[in-house]
TrEMBL record, chain A:
Stated name of the protein: Thioredoxin reductase 3
GO biological process: cell differentiation; cell redox homeostasis; cellular response to oxidative stress; glutathione metabolic process; spermatogenesis
Domain (Glutaredoxin) ranges: 41-102
Cofactor(s) of this protein: FAD
Pfam families found in the cross-reference section: Glutaredoxin, Pyr_redox_2, Pyr_redox_dim
Gene Ontology MF, one: thioredoxin-disulfide reductase (NADPH) activity
Gene assigned in the entry: TXNRD3
Entry similarity comment: Belongs to the class-I pyridine nucleotide-disulfide oxidoreductase family.
Subunit structure: Homodimer.
Function: Displays thioredoxin reductase, glutaredoxin and glutathione reductase activities. Catalyzes disulfide bond isomerization. Promotes disulfide bond formation between GPX4 and various sperm proteins and may play a role in sperm maturation by promoting formation of sperm structural components.
One Gene Ontology CC term in the entry: cytosol
All residue ranges annotated as the FAD/NAD(P)-binding domain in the record: 130-467
Entry keywords, A to Z: Cytoplasm, Developmental protein, Differentiation, Disulfide bond, Electron transport, Endoplasmic reticulum, FAD, Flavoprotein, Methylation, Microsome, NADP, Nucleus, Oxidoreductase, Phosphoprotein, Redox-active center, Selenocysteine, Spermatogenesis, Transport
From TrEMBL, chain B:
Group of enzyme by EC: oxidoreductase
Species this chain originates from: Rhinolophus ferrumequinum
Disulfide bonds: C57-C62
PANTHER family named among the record's database cross-references: GLUTATHIONE REDUCTASE, THIOREDOXIN-DISULFIDE REDUCTASE
One term under GO cellular component: cytosol
Protein's recorded name: thioredoxin-disulfide reductase (NADPH)
The enzyme's E.C. designation: 1.8.1.9
Domain FAD/NAD(P)-binding, residue spans: 11-346
Length: 614, 494
């Protein structure tokens, strides 16, 4: 690095990276974009180039601070030049950027000076209101905003909940806190308590009457808890001096966003960088009566009345979880499924999840889709007639329900936030935003995290991790990227399903069946024995790569507390878990988790895995 | 019978003791083609309690205690239920008889299962009390006094241990019971004094309290000796807030039966020297366990024991001072007294004896869980041990107080829900120990035990994405070091 003459900001250059791998190249690209972002004037030059010298002299004469990278004085100059040409379509030096705008070479810079464009661009200096504006106050957005604020940046969060077609809206915190993980786990817990109540009699607790469930009591308690979380997010933003604006954000031009509040008042804000974390909202069917009469997970958790006899449409984890807890608190529940359960998850596990639900009183209508929803009676709840048709033939059917809950998927909130104004590309079909491995969109100063990302996982902890790491990369010294591999997750169906790594189908697709060994077994949790609950229902499975030391590439468990069990195994998978290590590890007795330390039967052996009862 | 003529022995392998370790060893060896016998005999407890095949874990240990713990947890859930909208009565009584019968029936079904498994694997089973005649021959005596001689090429001692009674406390043996009896009581123990501070003591006191019984723990010094002491204090703190009474720094001196059948216990406060007195329906001794080695006539075979502990001295191969005699499980010196370690040690021993493998049992990083009302799971080193081994300046402790989501709506106190990860300070900060206090601690700890086995570092744990919302995810979110002195309380999500 050369010493900086007065008037120039010194900026340490980073050690040379040779562009051998795509990853290193991407890293370099990111760093170059960072230099362009962070410097009012950035000149990529060569120390001996006379054109470069002229440009430097021009800026010096204007009294403007600039930063230089001399390509001939860094180890990876050639790679820098290549990547620069990718970014700018210009192979020569000097390569000049003014306020993030690509100026061009020497001639173009002088032309801009003469036309006044250069001065205009230079005036934009530090005109931004914020270092970072985050659009969306959910898990990912808040994590990113807070981390950036901790790193000393001026940050704003725009969050606005557009009411659902049924009029439901909520406070700060996004899907997870308000209409996702938190309320669903609590309602799942309510259902588990129902099970515990009936178990408890077998364990000697004495009460006679069948316990009845009161929806309003539960919902109020859960909403109170959510209210306290909304509040704590507000407090936490305030403590970190993050500006929180309860307005709808929409890009109007580069670096500029329009915020519209509930009353329709508009305010514009500018920022150097933006993070899109707007998440998703439930999808509707687009059939007659759906928006008028059906509810979604956006409405269910704060529904002021018990939903009664419910039809759940869909087979996503949201659908199955909702169906599970509604049945668990004693409601008559039917699930209408177009094709497979839990698409994307291991299908053997998914079917087992479904069959447990079926054994516990939930009806499944498979290969049907609703075509019309009609209101028969008003009320809280009212009565709805649903007409559905077969996906395989002309057959139709009708049913009457108090509530129809749609859980057929979710759509990204990316189409009405002005992305087209600044040229941020989205996948036109899905609405998702493609990003590189540093969560950067095609517009370099715009990033995205969470459920809006294309090809990434829609999970709170992933969004949090991605948001936090993004802030650290943008504003701190960190380089660590979010690792989307081997992310564990759990579906909180009546029998919980925890997994990490690949499904069996995916593993076969990637590694071929003959290269895999699958170990599996049923197990009977000790607590279930005395309670007289089903044997040969809980199931454990691992998928190993035979030709990589039997490394565990897929972990699946169906049983109580699956989430608690899976977490530690996910750490182990991160550290290269093998079958041998599982065998060598001592179990904790008596737990469900210990079953993984004694797996002996391979699927390929075809041996019986059922456990004998007494 | 001469030891030199091993081919003429009755069995290739004789296992003394039909508990977790012994049965695992016998079954494995039989499966590998050996001719195997198991001798098992349960000497009735001083109160006359006896049980079937399967050893401590199945009959008077892990299984019944976890089930009674579960019964107690269900009591908590009944109290939680109204918060979640269930209309249940506020005061639900508990019927000990009904629970005990259900638990005992399950245990009996397991006894039966063990018998069947031995039969299936062609292991000969003798219900006799064994003692050595010489280094290859064991004499077994039936309940009726009939003697049988059995000889074997290899002998595995897996006789386990039994609860210890105090020797110098008047009335202790006559009026007290132990964990050998509690699970088999037909009637509720009523108001109970638990003497001791072992995990057995705390687990029993925990579930008794949870079953609405008036329960007091009397301990001489510290709780859960050998476990991380910060965690141990949190365990007892939680129990106290949950209704268990504690008499600390006290030792009993006398137990007297009153005319109405109640037990009058006199104890001494060690600090003040003052004597105090209380009456209980039941006194449960949980002051430790002694290995079942003294009736084995080990000296006739030349097997050495530690004269203080009476445990059998073993090497890494589990071999005793006599090369073809082995000891595994609770009877062996220096081994963790845990079912899964005994089971694995037994299985590995059988594999080595049959030439199937040379793998030795690895006794490091054994995970375990104490099933107190708030469960305590741990693996690896305690903070004290880590500091002792590596020096305080080389140890970094990450910790957090957290609130399980389910506790919020139920308005349960989470003051003692706490996680601590003990790491080396030098990057990447290898994890030395993990300590988890909270619901389902056993389930949470198991996977992390694997992680530690895989050599997980703090960095790797932090790179693992959490499962939301669980308690286990809090482990992957530990950010605050003890050294920083910052407030370790987790607030909100993220």
């Amino acid at each position: 690095m050369r010493s900086s003459p007065p008037g120039r900001r010194a900026r340490p250059w980073f050690p040379g990276i040779s562009c051998t791998s795509a990853e290193a190249r991407e890293e370099l690209r990111r760093r170059l974009l960072g230099l362009i972002e962070d410097n009012r004037v950035m000149i990529f030059s060569k120390s001996y180039c006379p054109h470069s010298t002229r440009v430097k002299e021009l800026f010096s004469s204007l009294g403007v601070e600039y930063n230089i990278l001399e390509l001939d004085q860094v180890d990876d100059g050639a790679s820098v030049q290549e990547v620069l040409s990718e970014i700018t379509n210009q192979i020569t030096v000097p390569n000049v950027f003014v306020n993030k705008v690509h100026m061009g070479g020497c001639d173009r810079t002088f032309q801009a000076h003469q036309s006044g464009l250069l001065q205009k661009l230079l005036q934009k200096e530090s005109a931004y209101d914020y270092d970072l504006i985050v659009i969306g106050g959910g898990s990912g957005g808040l994590a990113c905003a807070q981390e950036a604020a901790i790193l000393g940046k001026k940050v704003m969060v725009l969050d606005f909940v557009v009411p659902s077609p049924q009029g439901t809206s909520w406070g700060l915190g996004g899907t997870c806190v308000n209409v996702g993980c938190v309320p669903k786990k609590l309602m799942h817990q309510a259902a588990l308590l129902g099970q515990a109540l009936s178990d408890s009699r077998k364990f000697g607790w004495e009460y006679n009457q069948q316990a009845k469930h009161n929806w309003e009591t539960m919902t109020e308690a859960i909403q109170n808890h959510i209210g306290s979380l909304n509040w704590s997010y507000r407090v936490s933003l305030r403590e970190k001096a993050v500006a929180y604006v309860n307005s709808y954000g929409e890009f109007v031009e580069h670096h500029k966003i329009k915020a519209t509040n509930r009353k329709g008042q508009e305010t514009c804000y500018t920022a150097a960088k933006f993070v899109i974390a707007t998440g998703e909202r439930p999808r509707y069917l687009g059939i007659q009566g759906d928006k008028e009469y059906c509810i979604t997970s956006d409405d269910l958790f704060s529904l002021p009345y018990c939903p009664g006899k419910t039809l759940v449409v869909g087979a996503s984890y949201v659908a199955l979880e909702c169906a599970g807890f509604l049945a668990g608190i004693g409601l008559d529940v039917t699930v209408m499924v177009r094709s497979v359960l839990l698409r994307g998850f291991d299908q053997e596990m998914a079917e087992k999840v479904g069959s447990y639900m079926e054994q516990h009183g939930i009806k499944f209508l498979r290969k049907f889709i609703p075509v019309m929803v009609q209101q028969l009676e008003k009320g809280l709840p009212g009565k709805l007639k649903v007409v559905a048709k077969s996906t395989e033939g002309p057959e139709t059917m009708e049913g009457v329900y108090n509530t129809v809950l749609l859980a057929i998927g979710r759509d990204s909130c990316t189409r009405k936030i002005g992305l087209e104004k600044i040229g941020v590309k989205i996948n036109e079909k899905t609405g998702k935003i493609p990003v590189n491995d540093v969560e950067q969109t095609n517009v370099p100063y715009v990033y995205a995290v969470g459920d809006v990302l294309e090809g990434k996982l829609e999970l709170t902890p992933v969004a949090i991790q991605a948001g936090k790491l993004l802030a650290r990369r943008l504003f701190g010294d960190h380089l660590e990227k979010c690792d989307y591999i081997n992310v564990p997750t759990t579906v909180f169906t009546p029998l919980e399903y925890g997994c990490c790594g690949l499904s069996e189908e995916k593993a076969i697709e990637v590694y071929k069946k003959e290269n895999l060994e699958v170990y599996h077994t049923f197990f009977w949790p000790l607590e279930w024995t005395v309670a007289g609950r089903d044997n040969n229902t809980c199931y454990a499975k691992i998928i190993c790569n035979k030709f990589n030391n039997n490394r565990v590439i897929g972990f699946h468990i169906l049983g109580p507390n699956a989430g608690e069990v899976t977490q530690g195994f996910a750490v182990a998978m991160k550290c290269g878990l093998t079958k041998q290590l599982l065998d060598d590890t001592i179990g904790i007795h008596p737990t469900c988790g210990e079953v993984f330390t004694t797996l002996e039967i391979t699927k390929s052996s075809g041996l019986d895995i059922s456990q004998k009862g007494c | 019978v001469e030891s030199a003529h091993s081919g003429r022995q009755d069995y290739d392998l004789l296992v003394i003791g039909g508990g977790s370790g012994g049965l695992a060893c016998a079954k494995e060896a039989a499966q590998l083609g050996k001719k195997v016998a198991v001798v098992d005999y349960v000497e009735p407890s001083p109160r006359g309690t006896r049980w079937g095949l399967g050893g401590t874990c199945v009959n008077v240990g892990c299984i019944p205690k976890k089930l009674m713990h579960q019964a107690a947890l269900l009591g908590d859930r009944i109290r939680d239920a109204p918060h979640y909208g269930w209309e249940v009565p506020q005061q639900v009584p508990h019927d000990w008889r009904k629970m005990a019968e259900a638990v005992q029936n399950h245990v009996k079904s397991l006894n039966w299962g063990h018998r069947v498994q031995l039969q299936d694997r062609k292991v000969k089973y003798f219900n006799i009390k064994a003692s050595f005649v010489n280094e290859h021959v064991v004499c077994g005596v039936t309940k009726g006094g009939k003697e049988t001689l059995l000889s074997a090429e290899h002998i595995v001692i897996a006789t386990g241990g039994r609860p210890r009674y105090p020797t110098n406390i008047e009335g202790a043996l006559e009026h007290g019971i132990t964990s050998d009896d509690i699970f088999w009581l037909k009637e509720s123990p009523g108001k109970t004094l638990v003497v001791g501070a072992s995990y057995v003591a705390l687990e029993c006191a925990g579930f008794l309290t949870g079953l609405s019984l008036d329960t007091t723990v009397m301990m001489r010094s510290i709780p859960l000796r050998g476990f991380d002491q910060q965690m141990s204090s949190l365990v007892t703190e939680h129990m106290a807030s949950h209704g268990t009474q504690f008499l600390r720094g006290c030792t009993p001196s006398r137990v007297k039966k009153l005319p109405d059948g109640q037990l009058q216990v006199t104890w001494k406060d060690l600090a003040s020297g003052r004597e105090d007195m209380g009456t209980f329906d039941t006194v449960l001794w949980a002051i430790g366990r002694v290995p079942e080695t003294r009736s084995l006539n080990l000296e006739k075979a030349g097997v050495n024991t530690n004269p203080n502990t009476h445990k059998i001295l073993v090497d890494a191969q589990e071999a005793t001072s006599v090369p073809h005699i082995y000891a595994i499980g609770d009877a062996a010196e220096g081994r963790p007294e845990l079912t899964p370690t005994a089971t694995m040690a037994g299985r590995l021993l059988a594999q080595r004896l049959c030439g199937q493998s040379s793998d030795l049992m690895d006794y490091d990083n054994v995970p375990t869980t104490v099933f107190t009302p708030l469960e305590y799971g741990c693996v690896g080193l305690s903070e004290e041990e880590a500091v002792a081994r590596h020096g305080e300046e080389h140890v970094e402790v990450y910790h957090a107080f957290y609130k399980p989501l389910e506790f919020t709506v139920a308005e349960r106190d989470s003051s003692q829900c706490y996680i601590k990860m003990v790491c080396l300070r030098e990057p990447p900060q290898l994890v030395l120990g993990l300590h988890f206090l909270g619901p389902n601690a056993g389930e949470v700890t198991q996977g992390f035990a694997l992680g530690i086995k895989c050599g997980a570092s703090y960095t790797q744990v932090m790179r693992t994405v959490g499962i939301h919302p669980t308690c286990a995810e809090e482990v992957a979110k530990l950010r605050i070091t003890k050294r920083s002195g910052l407030e370790p309380t987790v607030t909100g999500c993220g």
